[in-house]
Amino acid sequence: MIDLHTHSVYSDGTNTPAELVQISEERGLSAIALTDHDTVGGIVPLFEAGAGSSVETVPGIELSAECAKGTMHVLGYFIDYTNAALLEKIDTVREGRKERNHEILKRLNKLGYRLMWSDVEKHAGADVIGRPHFAAALVKRGLVKSRKSAFELLLAKGRPAYVERYRYTGRECIELIRNAGGIPVLAHPATIYLHDDQLRGLIMGLAECGLGGLEVYYAEHQPANIQKFKGWAEELGLICTGGTDYHGANTPDLKLGTGFGQLRVPDEALEQLKAAAGK
């Protein structure tokens, strides 16, 4: 059993990389990929934890791409996490996050939800601060009932405290990952809100730009979606990958490796990624 989509305290997860390895061991996983948002800060700690473990550790990242309808993320596997161009580009994204975060705080205060920046920082991990940390701070202060309601009322796209931030295009994300020696994979395609013909056309265009895989197996994908995306991937010559999108306590019903209970990512997904990356 493998899980190729996880997050740590270095972005918006609640577990350290070492804890992710430990949980993976306990749950019988043979491999895990760390794909934190816009940061590679957790990769060295992941490798250190994996060195004395039965769990294979895979370096990764998750980049947010421009998307008119829904959300588009591009995963990068087996990246050179010391690549200077990659580090420079993700620093640009993180600066955009900082500007966005301060604007979110201003909007929340203007709306009557009194938070200080220190309230948000208390819920952040070692690196990237994002909307889940605002949600946690709002719950802690008793301003909303749950993290889910924080997003539904305030922080989700289209809600009053939502603020756009700088993102690269899908093509730029693919180029960035390729130039860092990695294999780019389109994450959870069902979160891109397009009709099937438009979505397939988008994926085809990304494949022509160097996309290497499609996240077919995902915790929130229904069986019909899995079959559809698997068919598209095979037609376009893309690797069928998968993972839970594990965030620890932020998604308490979702378990590492199995998602909500039904997820199984084929071991060959990792072998195919290795082959494509020359590992």
Q: Which SSEs are present, and which pair or pack?
A:
Layout: E1 2-6, H1 17-26, E2 31-34, H2 43-50, E3 56-65, E4 72-77, H3 84-110, H4 117-121, H5 131-140, H6 147-155, H7 170-179, E5 183-186, H8 196-208, E6 213-218, H9 223-236, E7 239-243, H10 268-277
What does this structure look like?
- This protein has helices at 17-26, 43-50, 84-110, 117-121, 131-140, 147-155, 170-179, 196-208, 223-236, 268-277, and strands at residues 2-6, 31-34, 56-65, 72-77, 183-186, 213-218, 239-243.
- Strands 1-2-3-4-5-6-7 form a seven-stranded mixed β-sheet.
- The chain is 42% helix and 14% strand.
- Strand 1 (2-6), helix 1 and strand 2 form a beta-alpha-beta unit.
- The protein has ten helices and seven strands.
- By secondary structure, the chain is α/β, with parallel strands linked by helices.
- The chain is globular.
